[in-house]
Amino acid sequence: MPPTTRNAHAIDGMISRLNAPDYDRWAVQIRRAGGCAQPIHLRGRAEYRDRQTGALLHRYTTRTEPDGVLRLPCKTRRASRCPACAETYRADTYHLIRAGLIGGKGVPASVASHPCLFVTLTAPSFGPVHTHREHHGKTHPCHARRAAPTCGHGRVLSCKARHRIDEPVLGEPLCPGCYDHAGSVLFNALAPLLWKRFTDALRRHLAKSGGLTLKEMRDHLAVSFAKVAEYQRRGVVHLHAVIRLDGPDGPNSRPPTWATCDLLAAAVTHSARVVRTDVPALDDEPARVLRWGAQLDIRPITLSGDLTESAVAAYIAKYATKAAECVGTLDRPIRLTDDLAALPVRDHARRLIAECFRLNDHEATADLRLAHWAHMLGFRGHFSTRSRHYSVGIGDIRADRTAHARLPLLDDDPEIVATWEYVGRGLNLGDQAIAAAITGGAI
Fold it and tell me: 407 falls in which pLDDT band (50, 70, 90)?
C-alpha cells in the first residue's frame, strides 16, 4: 500500500473511531490490554452464579462491547510484534531470574549464598565476518592482516575499516562464498542438543568431583539454571546461563561445603570442552563435529560490582524478547511458496534461509525440520528456559497478576460459565494511532 493511501486510511479510521458513540468503552479496552499492538478479539458471554444456590449474580456479553468483541492482550514475547506485551514478558523474566539469585516470590533469601555463575557458551567460527572491535574505548580495524590470502573466489580476506557499532555490514562474511552457511544452520539446529549434553556432562563432573554416582548425587546436590539464547550478528546463537548449585531440596537447602564456585567453574569449563554432536556426511556436505566455540565466559555473580544480580537479570530479560529478526531476518515462518529473492532480509540471512530449505531435503537432517525453522536460521529451541527448581515460572507470575487484578463479586468465589469464540486479532491503522496516543506507546 502506497504511503499516501496508507495515511489516508489511517486518518479515516481515526475520525471514525473518535466519533463513535462507544469510543470511551473502546479506550477502556485498549488501556486494559496494556497498549497491545495486536489484541486478541473474542466474542461470547460469561455468567457468574452462586455456587450454593445457582442464582445468577452477573451476566457479561460482548454484544454491548465496541465492534461486538472483547479485546485481550496477545502476550507475545517478541518485541518486533508487540512492544507492549514484550515489555511485560521482559519484566516477568527479570523478576524470575532475580528471584533465583537473591530470593523472593517463594524463593528463600538464603539462595543468595549458593554458588552461582553467569556463563556464556558461544558458537564456533564458520568463517571471518565484519565486526566492531573496541579496546579501552578505541575502535580497531575489523580484520587487518598483512599479506592477507586471497580466497578461491578472488576476495582478499582482510578488512581495515573501523566499523561503527551500528553499521549494517557487521556480521556479513568477508567472503560469502567461503562462509560455511551449512555449518551455521546445523549448529543453530543442534544447539539445544549441545546444551542438554552440556548439562548432563556438568552433573557427571560434579558427581565425580564429590566422589558420588549420579544417583547418589541427587541426595546431596542439585544443579539449577536459567538460560536465554542470543543471536550474534553473523546469524548463530550463543547461550547465556545462570547456573546455581543447590542442596537436594533445591533453593530451600544449601549445597554441601565441597560444592564451591571454583568447583562449578571447573565443571563448566570441562563440560563445555568435551561435549559434541556428530552430523553425518550428506551428498554434498562432509561429516561434521559440532562443539561450543573457543570463547567461554565464566563469571561469578555478586551483590555489588559490575555483575550484580540486577545486571544479570536485566541482561537475560532483554534477550528473552528478541529473536532472529534482530540480525536481519523475519519474525514469522517462511513458506515454501515464498520468493526468497524478494524477502526483505539481509543477503547473509537470505543465504542462511536458503540453506535451511536445501538441507531440509536430506534424509539425514529431515528430523531437524529446517524449512519450518528457516526464519530462525535453523534454531528450534526455546529462547528462555529454566530448570524446575530455579525459581517461579512465567505462568506463576501471570497467575499472581491475574489473581491480584480480579475483583470477586462475592466473598465466596462464584461459579463462572463462559462461552468464547476467537474472531480475529489486531488493530486497523487508525486504531493503532489512537491506541499509541492513549497508552503513550508507538504501535
Answer: low
Q: What does the block give as the cell for 389?
A: 527448581
Instruction: Tell me the pairing of strands 56-61 and 70-72.
Output: unpaired
What is the helix (H) or strand (E) element at residue 239, kind and residue range? strand 237-246
Do both 186 and 281 map to the same domain?
yes
Residue 162 shares a structural domain with residue 246: no
| 127 pLDDT higher than 70 | yes
Question: In total, how many domains does the chain have?
Answer: 2
φ, ψ of residue 399 to 5 degrees: the values are: -65, -40
Does residue 95 register a pLDDT over 70? yes
Q: Measuring CA to CA, how many Å separate 199 from each of 194, 248, 357, 395?
A: 9, 17, 30, 24
The reply to whether 277 falls in a domain is yes
Contacts of 24 (CB under 8 A, 6+ apart): none
Cα–Cα–Cα angle for 159, 165, 171, rounded to 5 degrees: 55
What mean pLDDT do residues 178-194 have? 96
Q: Please state, in angstroms and rounded to a whole number, the distance separating the CA atoms of residues 117 and 124.
A: 22
Distance CA 232, CA 244 (A): 25
Total-model pTM: 0.88
CA–CA gap between residue 431 and residue 23 (Å, rounded): 11
Query: Which set of grid coordinates corresponds to residue 304?
Result: 555489588
Q: Is 64 exposed, middle or buried (0-12, 13-18, 19+ CB in 10 A)?
A: exposed
**200 vs 119, 203, 214, 296, 414, CA distance in Å?**
16, 5, 10, 18, 47
C-alpha 141/C-alpha 145 separation (Å) is: 10
Q: Are residues 119 and 139 in the same domain?
A: no
User: Pick from 206, 191, 184: which is nearest to 385 by CA?
Assistant: 191
Question: DSSP state, 256?
Answer: P
Cβ contacts of 19 within 8 Å, gap of 6 or more: none
**pLDDT, position 67:** 94
Q: What is the mean pLDDT of residues 319-346?
A: 87
Residues 338, 217 within the same domain: yes
| Domain ranges, residue 346 | 83-126+180-392
Grid cell locating 123: 558458537
